[in-house]
Design a protein that fits this description.
single chain, 6-stranded antiparallel beta sheet
Length: about 350
């Protein structure tokens, strides 16, 4: 397998270094089959919860933990990640197998969980360079089919009743992320303030609920090493019970952003989608409707604006953590420019520009 699209691994960053001996002794006692010798390296690319690859002669594992330092309220709840992926095992949504959750921060300094390692490719560039158009198109279609499958899961039947409040998700999210944004913003930016005010005044009356991933995009898909096939949906930190169209709109933000907006926010504006084998936004929405049995998509401009607002707030939070010295990615200092672009795009979308 080419290394070009494999997740990047580095030696543990100084601020994320953990006691290897204590960790390996704990895993040997709590994870079936774990046997040293073992080595550990850190994945680069994740902006939030530090994630590590543990390699042993018999099997490889992935560890995910909370970051160090003072954290924003309600962020980095890795216990929720563990719970939802455990619940989705055996459904039509592909997830990594969960192996163990550690609630004792004394082991490595924070709570953490261990899961199986799924080898494959991760494409952070939405253009999926190096692929033939038919491969690119197959992956693109699977992303929409997979989010549709997620939204069709009966969350109560898989044990996720109480995983989130099923009502007024959008209104609560607007207030939550406005509060997070105000706690981490580094400058006053009129388009973001305007976008927040518009969203507060235009919340759709019709409400609905499903499992939502919260960060459903190409960069969070593990793709088969050689086939255009999704092996696992990754990074469930923001998952909850919420409005499915908010999740879908986030997945479709690339249609409204310029190429090269940032590592997680690159877009398709001005790109010949058909030549690349990619669906138009209309085709993606039609496929989603077909897979979920929905007649049409209502209030699309609102949900796009909401998703861009929420993404801008998250990105500014990443930048604030970078300034504080505890962001998980060395590229985080570039994120403020991405915040400005995404917030401005959101304001333009809701205005109809």
């Amino acid at each position: 397998m080419s290394t070009e699209h494999q997740p990047r691994l580095v030696e543990m960053l100084p601020q994320h270094r953990i006691d290897e001996a204590a960790l390996f002794a704990y895993l040997a006692a709590h994870v079936d089959g774990f046997a040293p010798p073992a080595t550990i390296r850190q994945f680069q690319g994740g902006q939030s919860n530090p994630t590590y690859l543990i390699e042993t002669p018999g099997r490889n594992y992935v560890l995910r933990k909370k970051p160090p330092g003072t954290l924003l309220p309600s962020a980095h709840q890795i216990d929720r990640e563990y719970r939802i992926q455990s619940a989705l095992e055996g459904t039509a949504v592909p997830v990594v197998p969960m192996l163990h959750y550690c609630t004792d921060p004394a082991v490595i300094g924070t709570e953490f969980y261990v899961m199986g390692h799924v080898a494959g490719r991760v494409f952070h560039d939405v253009m999926m360079p190096g692929l033939a158009p038919e491969e690119r198109g197959a992956i693109h279609r699977q992303i929409i089919e997979t989010i549709a499958a997620l939204h069709k899961v009966d969350y109560e039947a898989v044990g996720l009743a109480g995983f989130g409040r099923p009502d007024h998700y959008v209104a609560r999210q607007i207030e939550r992320w406005t509060k997070q944004y105000e706690a981490s913003k580094t400058e006053d930016f009129a388009p973001m303030a305007n976008l927040i005010a518009w969203l507060r005044g235009n919340i759709p009356e019709r409400d609905e609920s499903s499992i939502v991933h919260g960060d459903f995009r190409l960069g969070n898909m593990m793709i088969h090493p050689s086939e255009p096939r999704i092996l696992a949906v990754l990074d469930w930190e923001l998952s909850t019970i919420g409005h499915p169209l908010a999740d879908l709109a986030y997945c479709c933000m690339s249609y409204h952003l310029p190429p090269g907006s940032g590592p997680a926010m690159a877009g398709y504006q001005g790109v010949d989608l058909a030549a690349l084998g990619l669906m138009s936004e209309a085709d993606a929405l039609e496929l989603y409707c077909r897979r979920t049995g929905r007649e049409r998509i209502e209030n699309w401009r609102f949900f796009l604006g909401f998703s861009l607002f929420r993404s801008a707030a998250i990105v500014e939070g990443v930048y604030a953590r970078a300034l504080a010295g505890n962001a998980a990615d060395q590229r985080a200092h570039r994120m403020h420019d991405v915040f400005l672009q995404v917030a401005k795009t959101g304001w333009n979308v809701v205005r109809g520009d």
